[in-house]
Write a structure and sequence with these properties.
This protein is α+β, with helices and mostly antiparallel strands. The protein has helices at residues 36-47, 87-105, and strands spanning 22-31, 51-60, 69-78, 108-109. β2 (51-60) and β3 (69-78) form a beta hairpin. α1 (36-47) packs across α2 (87-105). The N and C termini lie far apart (54 Å).
Amino acid sequence: DLIVVSTNKRKKFKMYSTYPAIKRDIALLLKKKYKNSDVENRIFKAGGDLLKSVKLFDYYSGDDIPSDSISLAYSLTFQANDRTLNDKEVESYMDKIMALLKKDYKIIQR
């Protein structure tokens, strides 16, 4: 039998920014015991309201990587709704992100 469920959820419109985004990539070496989702959540925590997206684009384990570790690379997108961001602002957030990841996961930036 076919059962159809209606959710009747309203979709909310979210205003998009007309200001340009700034992208930064980071590559990290960390222990295999850590989950990608946990690392992404920590990045968002440190990235503040200006960090709009975090996307894992590379996972590597093998040659040149210790057997208990992995290399993860992320693309981060920063954007403000009310102004154009400058490099100094974004670098400040990147420093906070790296400091938190080093503290929580003992990562090595690659």
